[in-house]
Design goal:
GO terms for molecular function: thiamine binding; thiamine pyrophosphate binding. Helix content is about 40%, strand content about 15%. It is an alpha/beta fold. The chain has two domains: about 160 residues, D-Maltodextrin-Binding Protein, domain 2, CATH 3.40.190; about 150 residues, 3-Layer(aba) Sandwich (D-Maltodextrin-Binding Protein, domain 2), CATH 3.40.190. Helix 2 packs antiparallel against helix 10 and helix 6 crosses helix 12. The longest helix has 24 residues.
Protein backbone atom coordinates (compact mmCIF):
# COMPACT_ATOMS: atom_id res chain seq x y z
CA UNK A 1 0.00 0.00 0.00
CA UNK A 2 1.36 3.46 -0.88
CA UNK A 3 2.26 5.78 1.96
CA UNK A 4 -0.36 8.39 1.04
CA UNK A 5 -3.04 5.78 0.71
CA UNK A 6 -2.12 4.34 4.12
CA UNK A 7 -2.43 7.74 5.80
CA UNK A 8 -5.79 8.29 4.11
CA UNK A 9 -7.00 4.87 5.36
CA UNK A 10 -5.86 5.55 8.93
CA UNK A 11 -7.43 8.99 8.93
CA UNK A 12 -10.72 7.56 7.65
CA UNK A 13 -10.66 4.86 10.32
CA UNK A 14 -10.08 7.39 13.09
CA UNK A 15 -12.94 9.56 11.83
CA UNK A 16 -15.16 6.48 11.62
CA UNK A 17 -14.33 5.47 15.17
CA UNK A 18 -15.06 8.98 16.33
CA UNK A 19 -18.46 8.94 14.67
CA UNK A 20 -19.20 5.54 16.21
CA UNK A 21 -18.19 6.75 19.65
CA UNK A 22 -20.33 9.84 19.19
CA UNK A 23 -23.37 7.74 18.23
CA UNK A 24 -22.84 5.43 21.19
CA UNK A 25 -22.50 8.33 23.63
CA UNK A 26 -25.70 9.88 22.25
CA UNK A 27 -27.73 6.80 23.19
CA UNK A 28 -30.17 7.51 26.03
CA UNK A 29 -30.43 4.89 28.74
CA UNK A 30 -33.92 4.40 30.20
CA UNK A 31 -34.31 2.58 33.50
CA UNK A 32 -37.49 0.50 33.69
CA UNK A 33 -38.40 -0.68 37.18
CA UNK A 34 -40.66 -3.67 37.62
CA UNK A 35 -41.35 -7.10 39.05
CA UNK A 36 -38.56 -9.57 39.68
CA UNK A 37 -37.90 -13.24 39.03
CA UNK A 38 -39.90 -14.97 36.29
CA UNK A 39 -41.69 -11.86 35.01
CA UNK A 40 -38.43 -9.93 34.77
CA UNK A 41 -36.66 -12.71 32.87
CA UNK A 42 -39.45 -13.24 30.36
CA UNK A 43 -40.32 -9.57 29.79
CA UNK A 44 -36.69 -8.65 29.26
CA UNK A 45 -36.22 -11.39 26.66
CA UNK A 46 -39.51 -10.88 24.83
CA UNK A 47 -39.88 -7.10 24.88
CA UNK A 48 -36.94 -5.12 26.30
CA UNK A 49 -34.24 -6.90 24.31
CA UNK A 50 -36.33 -6.71 21.14
CA UNK A 51 -36.84 -2.97 21.60
CA UNK A 52 -33.13 -2.42 22.16
CA UNK A 53 -32.32 -4.35 19.01
CA UNK A 54 -34.88 -2.44 16.93
CA UNK A 55 -33.17 0.96 17.17
CA UNK A 56 -30.02 2.70 18.46
CA UNK A 57 -31.32 5.91 20.06
CA UNK A 58 -32.65 4.43 23.32
CA UNK A 59 -31.45 1.56 25.45
CA UNK A 60 -33.76 0.21 28.14
CA UNK A 61 -32.27 -1.40 31.23
CA UNK A 62 -34.68 -3.48 33.33
CA UNK A 63 -34.32 -3.02 37.09
CA UNK A 64 -36.07 -5.80 39.05
CA UNK A 65 -37.42 -4.17 42.22
CA UNK A 66 -40.02 -6.67 43.46
CA UNK A 67 -43.79 -6.53 43.98
CA UNK A 68 -46.01 -3.50 43.41
CA UNK A 69 -45.79 -2.37 47.04
CA UNK A 70 -41.98 -2.44 46.90
CA UNK A 71 -41.98 -0.52 43.63
CA UNK A 72 -44.28 2.13 45.10
CA UNK A 73 -42.04 2.38 48.16
CA UNK A 74 -38.99 2.87 45.95
CA UNK A 75 -40.70 5.68 44.06
CA UNK A 76 -41.71 7.39 47.28
CA UNK A 77 -38.13 7.28 48.53
CA UNK A 78 -36.84 8.69 45.23
CA UNK A 79 -39.54 11.32 44.70
CA UNK A 80 -37.12 14.26 45.00
CA UNK A 81 -34.65 12.68 42.57
CA UNK A 82 -36.10 9.71 40.63
CA UNK A 83 -33.61 7.04 39.56
CA UNK A 84 -36.07 5.17 37.34
CA UNK A 85 -37.83 6.58 34.29
CA UNK A 86 -40.80 4.21 34.03
CA UNK A 87 -42.27 1.45 36.17
CA UNK A 88 -44.45 -1.62 35.92
CA UNK A 89 -46.98 -2.26 38.70
CA UNK A 90 -50.50 -3.44 39.42
CA UNK A 91 -52.94 -0.83 38.14
CA UNK A 92 -54.65 -0.57 41.53
CA UNK A 93 -51.36 0.34 43.21
CA UNK A 94 -50.67 2.76 40.35
CA UNK A 95 -53.73 4.70 41.51
CA UNK A 96 -52.00 5.37 44.83
CA UNK A 97 -48.90 6.53 42.98
CA UNK A 98 -51.02 8.79 40.78
CA UNK A 99 -52.73 10.33 43.83
CA UNK A 100 -49.31 11.04 45.32
CA UNK A 101 -48.13 12.85 42.20
CA UNK A 102 -45.51 10.25 41.25
CA UNK A 103 -46.56 9.80 37.62
CA UNK A 104 -47.09 11.71 34.39
CA UNK A 105 -50.07 10.90 32.20
CA UNK A 106 -49.80 8.20 29.52
CA UNK A 107 -52.29 9.06 26.77
CA UNK A 108 -52.52 9.23 22.98
CA UNK A 109 -49.85 11.94 22.94
CA UNK A 110 -47.42 9.35 24.33
CA UNK A 111 -48.58 6.46 22.16
CA UNK A 112 -51.23 6.14 19.47
CA UNK A 113 -51.78 2.58 20.75
CA UNK A 114 -53.51 3.92 23.87
CA UNK A 115 -56.63 4.37 21.75
CA UNK A 116 -56.63 0.62 20.99
CA UNK A 117 -56.47 -0.59 24.59
CA UNK A 118 -59.32 -2.57 26.12
CA UNK A 119 -61.44 -0.58 28.62
CA UNK A 120 -60.00 -2.65 31.49
CA UNK A 121 -56.57 -1.17 30.70
CA UNK A 122 -57.67 2.43 31.22
CA UNK A 123 -58.98 3.38 34.66
CA UNK A 124 -60.18 6.83 35.65
CA UNK A 125 -57.76 8.44 38.05
CA UNK A 126 -54.74 6.35 37.00
CA UNK A 127 -51.99 8.13 35.07
CA UNK A 128 -50.54 4.96 33.56
CA UNK A 129 -52.22 2.39 31.33
CA UNK A 130 -52.54 -1.38 31.40
CA UNK A 131 -50.31 -3.40 29.13
CA UNK A 132 -51.01 -6.99 30.21
CA UNK A 133 -54.20 -8.75 31.32
CA UNK A 134 -53.87 -11.73 33.64
CA UNK A 135 -56.84 -13.64 35.01
CA UNK A 136 -57.76 -15.94 37.87
CA UNK A 137 -57.80 -19.65 37.02
CA UNK A 138 -58.64 -22.92 38.72
CA UNK A 139 -55.45 -24.90 39.30
CA UNK A 140 -55.52 -28.69 39.45
CA UNK A 141 -53.29 -31.73 39.53
CA UNK A 142 -53.67 -33.00 35.98
CA UNK A 143 -52.30 -36.41 36.93
CA UNK A 144 -54.91 -37.06 39.64
CA UNK A 145 -57.89 -34.87 38.75
CA UNK A 146 -59.51 -36.32 35.64
CA UNK A 147 -61.31 -35.24 33.64
CA UNK A 148 -60.10 -31.67 33.91
CA UNK A 149 -62.58 -29.54 35.90
CA UNK A 150 -64.52 -26.88 34.02
CA UNK A 151 -66.34 -25.22 36.92
CA UNK A 152 -65.46 -23.42 40.13
CA UNK A 153 -67.88 -25.78 41.86
CA UNK A 154 -65.05 -28.34 41.77
CA UNK A 155 -63.57 -26.63 44.83
CA UNK A 156 -66.59 -27.79 46.84
CA UNK A 157 -66.37 -31.38 45.58
CA UNK A 158 -66.60 -34.47 47.76
CA UNK A 159 -63.49 -36.39 48.74
CA UNK A 160 -61.30 -33.27 48.82
CA UNK A 161 -60.88 -32.87 52.56
CA UNK A 162 -57.62 -30.93 53.18
CA UNK A 163 -56.80 -31.05 49.46
CA UNK A 164 -57.62 -27.47 48.41
CA UNK A 165 -55.27 -24.47 48.78
CA UNK A 166 -57.03 -21.11 48.85
CA UNK A 167 -55.30 -17.71 49.06
CA UNK A 168 -57.53 -15.63 51.37
CA UNK A 169 -57.95 -11.84 51.31
CA UNK A 170 -56.27 -9.39 51.42
CA UNK A 171 -54.55 -11.29 48.57
CA UNK A 172 -56.01 -10.20 45.23
CA UNK A 173 -56.73 -13.86 44.43
CA UNK A 174 -58.88 -14.12 47.54
CA UNK A 175 -60.72 -10.92 46.68
CA UNK A 176 -61.28 -12.21 43.16
CA UNK A 177 -62.62 -15.55 44.39
CA UNK A 178 -65.08 -13.60 46.56
CA UNK A 179 -66.41 -11.76 43.51
CA UNK A 180 -66.71 -15.04 41.61
CA UNK A 181 -68.47 -16.79 44.52
CA UNK A 182 -70.89 -13.87 44.90
CA UNK A 183 -71.96 -14.31 41.28
CA UNK A 184 -72.22 -18.11 41.67
CA UNK A 185 -74.49 -17.66 44.68
CA UNK A 186 -76.78 -15.28 42.82
CA UNK A 187 -75.55 -12.12 44.47
CA UNK A 188 -75.12 -8.64 43.04
CA UNK A 189 -72.56 -5.87 43.27
CA UNK A 190 -69.69 -6.97 45.54
CA UNK A 191 -69.16 -3.38 46.68
CA UNK A 192 -72.60 -3.36 48.28
CA UNK A 193 -72.54 -6.87 49.76
CA UNK A 194 -70.65 -10.16 49.65
CA UNK A 195 -72.78 -12.02 52.16
CA UNK A 196 -73.87 -14.68 49.70
CA UNK A 197 -70.25 -15.27 48.74
CA UNK A 198 -69.17 -15.62 52.37
CA UNK A 199 -71.96 -18.12 53.07
CA UNK A 200 -70.92 -20.20 50.06
CA UNK A 201 -67.20 -19.95 50.80
CA UNK A 202 -67.86 -20.98 54.40
CA UNK A 203 -69.04 -24.35 53.10
CA UNK A 204 -65.64 -24.77 51.46
CA UNK A 205 -63.60 -24.62 54.67
CA UNK A 206 -63.63 -28.39 55.29
CA UNK A 207 -61.75 -28.97 52.02
CA UNK A 208 -59.09 -26.33 52.67
CA UNK A 209 -55.54 -27.39 53.40
CA UNK A 210 -54.37 -23.80 53.87
CA UNK A 211 -55.70 -20.28 53.41
CA UNK A 212 -52.15 -19.00 52.98
CA UNK A 213 -50.30 -21.23 50.50
CA UNK A 214 -46.53 -20.74 50.64
CA UNK A 215 -44.59 -19.61 48.72
CA UNK A 216 -47.45 -19.41 46.22
CA UNK A 217 -50.66 -21.25 45.22
CA UNK A 218 -48.87 -23.34 42.57
CA UNK A 219 -46.41 -25.09 44.88
CA UNK A 220 -48.97 -27.13 46.91
CA UNK A 221 -50.10 -28.82 43.70
CA UNK A 222 -46.65 -29.23 42.16
CA UNK A 223 -45.43 -30.73 45.46
CA UNK A 224 -48.50 -33.01 45.50
CA UNK A 225 -49.87 -31.66 48.78
CA UNK A 226 -53.08 -30.32 47.21
CA UNK A 227 -55.29 -31.29 44.29
CA UNK A 228 -56.93 -27.92 43.61
CA UNK A 229 -56.02 -24.29 44.10
CA UNK A 230 -56.61 -20.78 42.73
CA UNK A 231 -53.93 -18.84 40.88
CA UNK A 232 -52.99 -16.51 38.04
CA UNK A 233 -53.17 -17.80 34.50
CA UNK A 234 -49.86 -16.49 33.14
CA UNK A 235 -47.69 -18.09 35.78
CA UNK A 236 -49.80 -21.27 35.83
CA UNK A 237 -49.50 -21.70 32.06
CA UNK A 238 -45.75 -21.21 32.22
CA UNK A 239 -45.33 -23.78 35.00
CA UNK A 240 -47.69 -26.26 33.35
CA UNK A 241 -45.62 -26.17 30.16
CA UNK A 242 -42.44 -27.30 31.93
CA UNK A 243 -41.34 -30.91 31.30
CA UNK A 244 -42.92 -33.36 33.74
CA UNK A 245 -45.25 -30.76 35.28
CA UNK A 246 -48.40 -32.05 36.98
CA UNK A 247 -49.95 -28.57 37.13
CA UNK A 248 -53.04 -27.83 35.07
CA UNK A 249 -55.01 -24.58 34.74
CA UNK A 250 -58.50 -23.86 33.45
CA UNK A 251 -60.76 -20.82 33.06
CA UNK A 252 -64.05 -22.14 34.50
CA UNK A 253 -67.34 -21.64 32.70
CA UNK A 254 -68.71 -19.26 35.35
CA UNK A 255 -66.04 -16.72 34.41
CA UNK A 256 -63.04 -15.05 35.99
CA UNK A 257 -61.55 -11.70 37.04
CA UNK A 258 -58.77 -9.70 35.41
CA UNK A 259 -55.61 -8.42 37.07
CA UNK A 260 -54.05 -5.57 35.11
CA UNK A 261 -50.36 -4.67 35.06
CA UNK A 262 -49.69 -1.05 34.13
CA UNK A 263 -46.88 0.97 32.58
CA UNK A 264 -46.25 4.33 34.22
CA UNK A 265 -44.07 7.37 33.44
CA UNK A 266 -42.23 8.61 36.53
CA UNK A 267 -42.72 12.34 37.10
CA UNK A 268 -39.47 14.29 37.18
CA UNK A 269 -37.39 11.47 35.72
CA UNK A 270 -34.30 12.29 33.67
CA UNK A 271 -35.24 10.50 30.47
CA UNK A 272 -38.99 10.91 30.09
CA UNK A 273 -38.99 11.46 26.32
CA UNK A 274 -36.91 8.35 25.72
CA UNK A 275 -39.14 6.38 28.12
CA UNK A 276 -42.16 7.42 26.05
CA UNK A 277 -40.59 5.74 23.01
CA UNK A 278 -40.34 2.48 24.91
CA UNK A 279 -43.91 2.70 26.21
CA UNK A 280 -45.13 3.29 22.66
CA UNK A 281 -43.30 0.14 21.57
CA UNK A 282 -44.52 -1.89 24.58
CA UNK A 283 -48.17 -1.06 23.84
CA UNK A 284 -47.84 -1.96 20.16
CA UNK A 285 -49.03 -5.23 18.60
CA UNK A 286 -45.53 -6.67 18.12
CA UNK A 287 -44.46 -6.39 21.75
CA UNK A 288 -47.89 -7.36 23.06
CA UNK A 289 -47.95 -10.53 20.98
CA UNK A 290 -44.36 -11.42 21.86
CA UNK A 291 -45.03 -11.32 25.61
CA UNK A 292 -48.28 -13.24 25.25
CA UNK A 293 -46.36 -16.00 23.47
CA UNK A 294 -43.65 -16.00 26.13
CA UNK A 295 -45.75 -15.78 29.30
CA UNK A 296 -49.44 -16.18 28.32
CA UNK A 297 -50.66 -12.78 29.47
CA UNK A 298 -53.60 -11.61 27.37
CA UNK A 299 -52.69 -8.48 25.39
CA UNK A 300 -54.17 -5.16 26.51
CA UNK A 301 -54.13 -3.96 22.90
CA UNK A 302 -57.37 -4.98 21.18
CA UNK A 303 -55.69 -5.00 17.75
CA UNK A 304 -53.36 -7.91 18.58
CA UNK A 305 -54.05 -11.20 16.81
CA UNK A 306 -52.59 -14.27 18.51
CA UNK A 307 -52.11 -17.77 17.11
CA UNK A 308 -54.89 -20.08 18.32
CA UNK A 309 -52.47 -22.16 20.38
CA UNK A 310 -51.48 -19.03 22.33
CA UNK A 311 -54.90 -17.36 22.49
CA UNK A 312 -56.46 -20.54 23.89
CA UNK A 313 -54.11 -20.35 26.87
CA UNK A 314 -55.03 -16.75 27.70
CA UNK A 315 -58.31 -14.89 28.20
CA UNK A 316 -57.89 -13.15 24.84
CA UNK A 317 -60.97 -14.88 23.41
CA UNK A 318 -62.94 -14.89 26.67
CA UNK A 319 -63.39 -11.18 27.35
CA UNK A 320 -67.14 -11.68 27.68
CA UNK A 321 -66.57 -14.12 30.56
CA UNK A 322 -64.63 -11.66 32.69
CA UNK A 323 -66.53 -10.42 35.74
CA UNK A 324 -66.30 -6.74 36.60
CA UNK A 325 -63.98 -6.05 39.55
CA UNK A 326 -62.66 -2.52 39.44
CA UNK A 327 -59.52 -2.67 41.62
CA UNK A 328 -60.15 0.84 42.88
CA UNK A 329 -63.61 -0.14 44.12
CA UNK A 330 -62.25 -3.40 45.54
CA UNK A 331 -59.68 -1.48 47.57
CA UNK A 332 -62.46 0.48 49.27
CA UNK A 333 -64.14 -2.67 50.61
CA UNK A 334 -61.04 -4.81 51.16
CA UNK A 335 -61.06 -4.44 54.95
CA UNK A 336 -64.75 -5.30 55.15
CA UNK A 337 -64.30 -8.43 53.03
CA UNK A 338 -61.22 -9.44 55.02
CA UNK A 339 -63.20 -9.30 58.27
CA UNK A 340 -66.06 -11.28 56.69
CA UNK A 341 -63.61 -13.98 55.61
CA UNK A 342 -62.09 -14.20 59.09
CA UNK A 343 -65.50 -14.59 60.74
CA UNK A 344 -67.39 -16.61 58.16
CA UNK A 345 -64.80 -18.67 56.28
CA UNK A 346 -61.40 -19.06 57.94
CA UNK A 347 -62.69 -19.56 61.48
CA UNK A 348 -65.20 -22.27 60.52
Amino acid sequence: MKRGTLFTYIASAVVGLGLFAGAASAQTVVTLGGYGELFADQYKKAVVDAFNASQTEVKVEYYAIGGSAQILGTLRAQKAAPQVDAVIMDIGVAKAGTDEGLFDKVDESVSKHVADLYPQARLDGVAGVGFTLDNVVLLYDKEKVTPAPDTWEALWGKGLERKVAIPAPPEILGMSLTVIAEKMAGGGDFVTSTQKAITKLGLLSGNVLTFEPKPDPYTPIMSKQALLSVGWNARAQYFSAQPGSNLGAVLPKEGSVFQVNSLNLVKGAKNTEAAKKFIDYALGPEAQAAFAKAMFYAPANSKVELPDEVASRTAAKSMDRMLPMNPLEAAKVRDRILQEWRRGVISR
